[in-house]
Amino acid sequence: MIMDEKELNAIKTSKYFNKYYYYILHPFVLFSGLSAAKHYLFIGWKKNYNPSTRFNTSMYLDVNPDVRTAGMNPLVHYELYGKYENRDRCQKFKLLKTALNCRFFKRNTILMADAIHDKHTAPIDNFALFEYIMTLNQKNIKVYYILNKEYEYYSDIKTKYGKHIIPFDSVRNPIFVLRLFFLCFKLRYVLDSFDIFYTLFGNIFVRSKYTDVIFTQHGITFFKKYYIRPDVYGQLHLNKTVVSNDVEYNIFRELGLYKPVNIIKSGLFRWDLLNEKGQASKNKTIFVYFTYRHYLKQHPDILNTKYFKNIFSILNDKRLLSVMKRKNITFNIALHHALLRYIDKSQFKHLNINLVAEEDIGKIKKSACLLLTDYSSMCFEFMFQNKPVVFYRLDEDDFYNSEQDCKYSRDIKSSDKLIFNVFKKQDKVVDKIIKYINNDFIIEPYYKQKSSKFFYNKQNIRKNFYDYLKKNW
Questions:
Q1: Do 29 and 36 contact (CB within 8 A), yes or no?
Q2: Nearest CA among 387, 392, 391 for reference residue 444
Q3: pLDDT tens digit string along 280-318?
Q4: Contacts of 439 (CB under 8 A, 6+ apart)
């Protein structure tokens, strides 16, 4: 108990703890029966809450892994031990900060990254813009893309783009940090689709005098708007954000606290690829993609959950398969990359299902005639192409009752009125898919008009955004 009091006092008296900041970002703490300091001491740090804008919880633990192993509150550790041991309190990158705020160099560089923390995630979002800018061969503007060096196709991409690809494995790699250091002297824009830069480097990029960090997103923020807070994808972590429609605009204004001038009306860069003409597919396909569930990883037999049972059931529905066989239509299914950590693809072989690799999803989305999903933001790419989407709430009770997924489910319930074709029963889903098959997958005019509200623009998204950057250089 004496130690608890000592730790609590260390937080209360720390210049890196601001109770007003903590209450504003986490107002529910006011009703928890705990003070802001107590909440951060016992609960907040475990959820990666920051005690102020001057101390980054997750970064301190990353830089000091022994503190994480010991299970100790990072701010307590810093105040009681770390600062006397010259530990890094998230100022490890002082050299980067110096370079970012140096005024003696011309700012002519754009740096981009997607999900570099996950070697399984294909470079899609900012990479689409990176490739577009590279084709322009502009000598006065330099562009670089950070890529996880363990990504399956890293070597191919590195060979194609050479020095413009920056390999990433860890922020503790001095070669990686040194490469960034030299770029930072001339850095004007950082384009981040996952809020990775704050996670890795704290707020040094956001607070730079000469660099803007722009959140470019990896999907329309619609089903998961609870993610948006001032300190998560919000104005505290990023200078600007890209939005695709008025729904998103209002979400980022209200929940992310962005000023209107810092919201860029654009779209996802990868959507331009959907407009590119390619060779027409001979076979018609239905793409099946269901989102991840936190509760699944806690289940001892993941393939025996309602989630997977209902997926297998609809993929083997005799009535649907009969119509598809007659029309020469096949299923393509992709698994969320997070699920691949818990299951083996070989477990699906006996089902005669065509499992799509993540790097092929872009091609499949472009060629497929219909999307069957539950809550995936991938639906907007089908709406973008005026293709039908059928939403199947295949495990609603389990999903809504899961403590980790409950926030997500509340957002979905409030959002359903803005979309269409939402069903809870397999028979209804099958009826709707068969109707689309018999109507050559033509979307109803009312649904087409409804889906158009999710897009400010459907043409030249990368060009328009790049023009915005140059205009505001």
A1: yes
A2: 387
A3: 567 899 999 998 887 777 777 877 888 888 998 999 999
A4: none
Binning pLDDT at 50, 70 and 90, where does residue 63 land?
confident
Q: Which fold has domain 94-267+459-471?
A: Rossmann fold (3.40.50)
Q: What is the pLDDT of residue 1?
A: 42
Q: Which of 452, 290, 319, 316 is nearest to 387 (CA)?
A: 452
Q: Hey, do 94-267+459-471 and 280-454 end up sharing a CATH topology, with the first three levels equal?
A: yes
Within 13 Å of residue 206, how many CA atoms lie on the same side as its CB?
Answer: 25
User: Is the separation of the CB atoms in 37 and 12 below 8 Å?
Assistant: yes
Given this model, what pLDDT does residue 353 score? 67
Over the range 88-126, which residues count as b (16 or more CB within 10 Å of their CB) and which as e?
Answer: bbbebbeebbebbeeeeeeeebbbbbbbbeebebbbbbb
Residue 349 φ/ψ, nearest 5 degrees: -60, -40
Residue 244 contacts by C-beta under 8 Å, 6 or more apart in sequence?
217, 220, 265, 266, 267, 268, 380, 454, 455, 456
pLDDT at 51: 92
- Grouping H, G, I as helix, E, B as strand and the rest as coil, residue 426 is helix
Neighbours of 1 (CB within 10 A): 5
| 473/471 Cα distance (integer angstroms) | 6
pLDDT average, residue stretch 319-325: 95
Please write the tens of the pLDDT for every residue from 22-56: 988 888 898 888 999 999 999 999 998 989 878 88
Count of alpha carbons within 13 Å of 452, Cβ hemisphere only? Answer: 7
Phi-psi group of 195: left, alpha or beta (phi > 0 → left; psi -120 to 50 → alpha; rest → beta) = left
Collect contacts of 89-92 with beta carbons under 8 A, ≥24 apart: 89/16, 89/55, 89/60, 90/55, 90/56, 90/59, 90/60, 90/63, 90/202, 92/63, 92/171
3-class secondary-structure state, position 26: coil
Q: Where in the chain are the domains?
A: 2-84, 94-267+459-471, 280-454
* Sheet with 370-373, side-by-side order of all strands: 354-355, 329-335, 284-290, 370-373, 389-392, 422-423
Bridge partners, residue 52, by sequence? 55
Residue 195 has pLDDT above 50, yes or no: yes
pTM equals 0.81
Q: Is 64 strand, coil or helix?
A: coil
Question: Which CATH class name applies to 280-454?
Answer: alpha beta
